[in-house]
């Protein structure tokens, strides 16, 4: 284990570019904003109540979707770059999303209430910083707007080949001059992750690094809250699952099976054997491919998380395992799984593994 500690006790910056893949960087932002909501981090907990990680292909220029009461009120677009992002790159990235929103207005519920976060593992060049600092005004006065838009249309011909700048200019400007644009750079990520409430995220995404904390805060074992956070981070593949239907306007269908499973979890456990009184602690969700089993389990996971019930969701088809220690390693757990469950069960009436 490498200590990530600089002089005077301040941790060194985390290696976002070198230690994370493109998808892992997206999952990191997804996890951070989920934690913002969980720990009631202002102002994010007031602005968003749900965070959705989009699939890597066909994401319409939005890696992470932010919603409030099912309204699309924001997104995070992640750029896993080593070099600084320049002005044209930033502008064309935002234009790409705006063109998608012109074609599909459900991507933005209200432009005046929408925030576009542009996150990078590097930094923004000086001209890009100037553009993004006052984006609404700067983009409306930008002499290269038509040129950049035409370049985006040409690059993504399959999606925008039927469009011209002249056709979309009014609607495009309506979006670009209304949405709020904010940046996220490594120093901002460090500031969030230095907070003790986010330490489980560091352990999950940067297992080779740990922050050295003062002796009075240095616990040999994890607290219950830290274990619950680790479980939720280990459940990212399941919690971030999005169906093709949900990619379009975030259409979500409530399933009866979800309610039945939640009722079973909430009710007293029935015995397997009337004589031995052994409780039935397992239930099976059975169905063919495409029947929605993953979506049901994801909904159960998120409901239990809202109810503050410890839950670990394992998307087994993503894992190759031979023994229990392989599972603990794949999930980046800081402690043995059975010990963690036993510790949580001491303080919680229910601990759920999906």
* Approximate helicity band: 40-55%
Assembly classification: single chain
Beta content comes to: 5-15%
Number of strands: 11
Q: Which structural class should the secondary elements be placed in?
A: alpha/beta
The radius of gyration computed from the alpha-carbon positions, rounded to a whole number of angstroms, is: 22 Å
**C-alpha end-to-end distance:** 30 Å
List low-pLDDT spans. 5-9, 212-220
Mean pLDDT: 83
**Number of helical elements:** 18
Question: Element order, helices and strands?
Answer: EHHHEEEHEHHHHHEHHEHHHHEEHEHHE
Morphology = globular
Please tell me about this protein's structure:
Helices cover 45% and strands 12% of the residues. It is an alpha/beta fold and 354 residues long. Strands 2-3-4-5-6 form a 5-stranded mixed β-sheet, with helices on both faces. Strand 8 and strand 9 form a beta hairpin. Helix 4 packs across helix 7 and helix 4 crosses helix 9. About 4% of the residues have low confidence.
Task: Explain the layout of strands and helices.
Layout (H helix, E strand, L loop, with lengths): L1 E2 L12 H4 L2 H17 L5 H4 L2 E4 L10 E5 L2 E9 L7 H17 L11 E6 L5 H8 L1 H6 L4 H11 L1 H4 L4 H12 L3 E5 L1 H8 L5 H7 L3 E2 L13 H11 L1 H4 L4 H4 L8 H11 L4 E3 L4 E2 L13 H14 L4 E2 L11 H7 L6 H11 L4 E2 L1
Parallel strand pairs: 1-7, 4-5, 5-6, 10-11
Antiparallel strand pairs: 2-3, 3-4, 8-9
Helix pairs in contact: 4-5, 4-7, 4-9, 11-12, 15-16
């Amino acid at each position: 284990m490498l200590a990530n500690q600089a002089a005077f006790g301040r941790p060194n910056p985390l290696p976002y570019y070198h230690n994370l893949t493109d998808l892992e960087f997206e999952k990191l932002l997804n996890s951070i904003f989920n934690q913002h909501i969980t720990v009631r981090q202002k102002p994010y907990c007031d602005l968003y109540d749900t965070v959705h990680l989009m699939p890597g292909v066909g994401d319409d220029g939005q890696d992470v979707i932010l919603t409030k009461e099912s309204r699309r009120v924001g997104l995070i677009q992640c750029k896993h770059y080593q070099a600084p992002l320049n002005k044209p790159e930033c502008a064309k990235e935002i234009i790409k999303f705006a063109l998608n929103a012109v074609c599909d207005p459900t991507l933005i519920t209200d432009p005046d209430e929408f925030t576009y976060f542009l996150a990078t593992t590097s930094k923004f060049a000086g001209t890009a910083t100037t553009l993004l600092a006052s984006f609404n005004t700067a983009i409306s006065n930008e002499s290269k707007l038509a040129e950049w838009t035409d370049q985006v249309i040409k690059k993504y011909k399959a999606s925008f080949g039927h469009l011209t700048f002249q056709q979309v200019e009014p609607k495009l400007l309506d979006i670009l001059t209304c949405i709020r644009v904010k940046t996220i750079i490594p120093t901002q990520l460090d500031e969030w992750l230095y907070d003790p409430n986010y330490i489980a995220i560091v352990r999950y995404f940067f297992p080779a690094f740990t922050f050295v904390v003062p002796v009075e805060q240095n616990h040999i074992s994890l607290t219950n809250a830290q274990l619950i956070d680790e479980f939720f981070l280990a459940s990212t593949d399941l919690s971030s699952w999005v169906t093709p239907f949900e990619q379009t306007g975030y259409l979500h269908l409530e399933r009866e099976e979800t309610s039945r499973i939640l009722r079973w979890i909430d009710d007293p456990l029935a015995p397997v054997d009337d004589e031995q009184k052994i409780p039935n602690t397992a239930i099976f969700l059975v169905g063919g491919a495409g029947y929605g089993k993953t979506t049901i389990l994801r909904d159960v996971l998120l409901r239990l998380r809202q109810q503050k019930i410890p839950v670990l969701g394992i998307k087994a088809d993503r894992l190759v395992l031979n023994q229990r220690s392989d599972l603990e390693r794949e999930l980046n757990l800081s402690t043995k799984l059975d010990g963690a469950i036993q510790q949580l069960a001491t303080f919680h009436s229910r601990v759920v593994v999906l």
